[in-house]
Design goal:
With about 350 residues, this protein is an alpha+beta fold. It contains 15 helices and twelve strands. It has a twelve-stranded antiparallel beta sheet with strand order 4-5-6-7-3-2-1-8-9-10-12-11, with helices on both faces. A hairpin with a 2-residue loop joins β4 and β5 (about 145-150).
């Protein structure tokens, strides 16, 4: 789930300004603040090296061309070149972290893993900052060189190259300092128990994964525009109170593996949920298979249901499944045009 508008504008926007003015998930997790309650990781290189993208190289080349064209149009491409940075080649993963507790979810941390040349990035950032008429200041935080960027009408963002493999962006100096301390081993990390439990259901081999406590999800739902969905949001928040958190992940290879996890109150509850889940899946599988005899458009759904399994993993209920790209194409083809 993305950050709120302000963290996107301040942190991600500032990051784009830096790079334009300019992977292992385990390490990214190590840098997270103790009050982190939502984590999303995009494994860029795993996606690019997946069998499906290798089999569709023209699509990747087209995406690369469109990205370069867009960056060049905005005057960003030349600074990326000066920084020696190619997102398709040098970016391994991106991790977004959102704090919980009494903090504003906008005060997030972004961690980029890949290959970074600090000197080239500084030179490119300084040149772009001067060309833009200021707004960028080179400073030091916790002994690490940082770029302090203040976009108009937005919070100041702090961006730094911690080492050749890691960059961070945040609107909180304290989070910047904490990440440096945890990287150096001078500060220990103590994530919440439910966050640790949820992290056990995801791994660095997945293309995209996300974990979030029910508390931070409820807080974000409260702050979200409700419009005509007030009743649905209220029902969702009531459901969130029954669990400690959620996780989800997809893995792209030849097929797409997907999973959804729920952190229950204890191991027994998770086991009971798994047993109940498998009964529901079995019933749904039989019902849809019977309906598919009369409606062939339901055949792809049967294929997906046949892969579903619910298991208990400690205090987590995890439902896993798989969908082939052929089956996905069939499902999309069966969707209404309007």
């Amino acid at each position: 789930m993305p950050f709120s508008r302000r963290i996107w504008a301040a942190a991600l926007g500032a990051l784009a300004m830096l790079l334009g003015a300019s992977a292992a998930q385990a390490q990214a997790t190590k840098l997270l603040p103790n009050d982190t309650e939502m984590i999303m990781t995009i494994n860029v290189q795993q996606i690019l090296k997946s069998e499906v993208l290798k089999a569709n190289k023209p699509l990747v080349d087209m995406a690369r061309g469109k990205l370069k064209e867009g960056l060049d149009d905005k005057g960003i491409g030349k600074y990326l070149d000066k920084a020696g940075f190619d997102p398709f080649r040098d970016l391994s993963s991106i991790t977004f972290a959102v704090p919980g507790g009494g903090r504003n979810p906008e005060e997030g941390l972004i961690i980029l893993e890949g290959t970074f040349d600090g000197d080239k990035i500084e030179a490119a950032a300084t040149e772009a900052g001067n060309a833009a008429g200021g707004g960028l200041k080179v400073t030091k935080i916790a002994g690490v060189k940082a770029f302090e960027i203040t976009p108009p009408n937005e919070k100041t963002a702090y961006i730094g190259v911690l080492n050749k493999k890691t960059m961070i962006a945040t609107t909180s100096k304290a989070d910047f300092e904490g990440a440096v301390a945890r990287l150096n081993g001078t500060k220990t990390q103590n994530l919440k128990a439910e966050v640790k439990a949820l992290l056990e259901t995801v791994n660095a081999k997945q293309s995209i994964n996300i974990v979030a406590t029910s508390a931070v999800l409820a807080k974000m739902a409260e702050n979200a525009p409700q419009g005509g969905n007030a009743d649905q949001i209220k029902a969702g928040m009531a459901a969130l109170k029954q669990i400690d958190g959620l996780s989800a992940a997809i893995t792209m290879q030849k097929n797409i593996d997907f999973q959804i996890g729920v952190n229950a109150k204890d191991n027994k509850t998770a086991s009971d949920f798994a047993n109940m889940g498998n009964l529901i899946i079995t019933g749904a599988r039989a019902k849809v298979a019977e309906q598919a005899k009369q409606n062939e458009k339901l055949a792809p759904a049967v294929e997906v249901l046949n892969t579903l399994r619910a298991t208990a993993q400690g205090s987590n209920l995890v439902v896993r499944g798989q969908i082939s790209f052929e089956t996905l194409q069939k499902l999309l083809a069966n969707l209404p045009n309007n």
